[in-house]
# Entry
Amino acid sequence: MVEVLKLRPSDQLVYEIEADGRVLLSAKTGTFASVAASLPRKPGSAPARTVAEMKVAVKTMARQRFSQQAKP
# Structure
């Protein structure tokens, strides 16, 4: 089925149920962001961060870890 629908890891399967009971299955191509956005969020969780915010956070943590390791 993967080959027939030409599925990729980022694709989603979408189904429709017809009035006569037939089920139509198709692939919806999406990006990582669209797939992630479709996932349910836990109540009370922090809001999503942008890529730019994540890059800043990674640089900040790397700088902190490096400065901790550099201390004798």
